[in-house]
Amino acid sequence: MSIAVVLYGREGCCLCDDARAVLQRVRADQPFDLTERDIDADERLLRAYLERIPVVTIDGVETFELFVDEARLRRHLALNAARRPTRVDGS
User: Fold this and answer.
1) If you classify domain 4-83 with CATH, what class do you get?
2) 66-86 pLDDT, tens digit each
3) Within a 10 A sphere around the Cβ of 56, how many other Cβ atoms?
């Protein structure tokens, strides 16, 4: 089971573009599932995140708001990976 990362943002948000770039750079050597959610497409998300985007969650936990610190992201991913049980087949 892979680590689930969600980027909440909106079209035309330069901070969201910056966060996406960090996520993609880290994802190149620390794989995780990345989902992007456009807050403009959901009224509930718009109300929750409008003044805070980008917001990034890792396995459902809000971890970053407004910017993504690459070193902290790498640490969070490593900690989450270490907490996951290893399957018998080694994956």
Assistant:
1) alpha beta
2) 999 999 999 999 998 888 766
3) 26
Domain ranges of the chain: 4-83
Q: Select from 51, 24, 73 the least CA-distant residue to 8.
A: 51
pLDDT at 26 over 80: yes
Strands (E), the chain: 4-9, 33-38, 55-58, 61-65
The answer to whether 3 and 60 have CB atoms below 8 angstroms apart is: no
Q: What is the pLDDT of residue 88?
A: 59
- pLDDT digits 0-9 by tens, 2-21: 999 999 999 999 999 999 99
85 half-sphere exposure, CB direction, 13 A CA radius: 3
pTM to 2 decimal places: 0.89
Torsion angle, alpha carbons of 63, 55, 38, 83, to 10: -10
Could you tell me the two tokens for 51?
């003044």
